[in-house]
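Hey, I'm writing a tutorial for new members on how sequence and structure tokens pair up, and I'd like a real worked example in the thread rather than a made-up one. If someone can provide the structure for the chain below, I'll link this post from the tutorial.
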Amino acid sequence: MPNASVPLELEIANLVAKGKQVLSLLEVEELNAISKVSVLSNEELCTFLHFQHSLGKMVYFDTPQLRGYVIISPLLLVEVMRSFVTDIAFWPKKGLIRNTFERMSGSGIIQRKDLYLIWEQKHFSKISPYKEFIFDMLIHLDILSEQRRYDIITGSRLPVENFFVPCMLTQRNDTRFMTHECTPEKAISLAFVFKGTIIPPALPNRLISACLSMWTVKTYEGKQLLFSGFVGLSFDKAHDIVVCVEGNKILLYIVHATSNGLIVPDIATGIKECMYTTLERISEFYKSTVHVSSSSQKLPFHIEYACCRLECHITEEAAFTTDEWICDKHEIVHTKDKWNIWNQDQVNLNY
């Protein structure tokens, strides 16, 4: 950044020292305009905010819903997270807020009015004046995720009432869905395999949040398939999606109501590409938070396709260079048609 931005940076630092944590964009523009040393142009001011954000000195998102405010003290985000992502020892002993925490720990669900009520407490008074902006920011960061609902008769989207907080959900999948529905006869699978032995929880949490903003949670035997590290989603009347975490893998299943031979290849391809793009975006986001250059095109994961028993895997790179593959455990021969279902765009190019 040019030296011209130094006076504005010092003015903002002085406000932070006095306890100010959030400024409206208009207030930032006014601070810039009254500078006695130098005034940044609109373009330079925008560049300044983006640069300060990249350094972690400020939080600014240049999107229609969020660009109206600048968090000049990122420590505010610690308070925001502490307000609802907290241990039971810090919950109120009784009352509506206690009920909210109990419901959230069991289902991972919170409503906007519940979070606003939490922020009305005296020790979160600095959050409350900006509650709408901060709530929208949490959605933008996938810390909260909209739970989409649709009218079963008209198919139209219903107003959003519930929001999912993945990091607060601790219950594991205790349904029979994986053993009775997600079977080798009905499902196909691939894995996004990450480096290392485990995946940082924040990454699959953001993926599950993103999934909830695209598809509806499936209800099976009276239970919503929404658990820690696991989500089951309804794509249409015949196809379901399962995303779950195992060690250093994020497993993706597509489950057909009757037979995996009836899975529509274009649907499988679309879901795979959607998941890949979402994981790519999330990975780039975390690179930016630790100031790693995004110019490197190497992603922290690769794709592997599952065998027909959904247990053995072949890397995508190996799959694309062979017409047949014999899985190690079952010694079953698989032809390239097995993974072509995930890659219809490439298959169509070959014709």
